[in-house]
Design brief:
By secondary structure, the protein is an alpha+beta fold. 26% of the residues lie in helices and 27% in strands. Bound molecules: nickel (II) ion (NI).
């Protein structure tokens, strides 16, 4: 496994719509493994392929809780994830992003989502999630369409974060 280069705002890859993965192969799995390692190294809970410079619909997630509530590593690999159901109820969550280092903001998200995707072995799966995991899934699938969490904020708040990022980069 290898740690990949992280792309940060305003790199244009973060604003692009990613391509569907035709088939889950050993090459796909190698990328997923490297993405997970990169995510762990940066202490993230989710990472999308464009964040490591790849225009492909792939994400990795680990919210460190198993379906039965047991703590510890529980990596999720999602290829071509698609949100097929979302609750009308929404929640506000304080989100950050490895591509917008050092910043965070409250974002409104659906409280529950159902996601259809291909797993590590290329098998179709359906995942129902709520609260924290639902938020991560929405944040990461957004990345595949070139959407960042700041795009969900008011223009004022969005500009404030962009200004701070520019200041950091100077
Ligand atoms: Ni992100």
């Amino acid at each position: 496994m290898a740690i990949m280069k992280l792309y940060t705002y305003p790199d244009k890859i973060l604003a692009e719509k990613c391509d569907k993965v035709e088939k889950v192969t050993d090459e796909t799995r190698k990328i997923l493994d490297d993405m997970l390692e990169t995510m762990y190294a940066d202490k993230g809970v989710g990472l999308a392929a464009p964040q490591v410079g790849l225009k492909q619909r792939m994400i990795v997630i680990d919210d460190k809780v198993g379906e039965d509530g047991t703590p510890g590593p529980h990596p999720l690999y999602l290829v071509n994830p698609e949100i097929i159901e979302k609750s009308a109820e929404t929640i506000f969550f304080n989100e950050g992003c490895l591509s917008l280092p050092g910043q965070c903001a409250e974002v409104e998200r659906h409280q529950r989502v159902t996601v259809r995707y291909l797993d590590y072995n290329g098998k179709e799966q359906t995942l129902k999630a709520e609260d924290y995991l639902a938020v991560i899934l929405q944040h990461e699938t957004d990345h595949l369409d070139g959407i960042l969490y700041i795009d969900h904020l008011s223009r004022l708040k969005r500009n404030m974060i962009i200004k701070k990022l520019k200041k950091q980069a100077d």
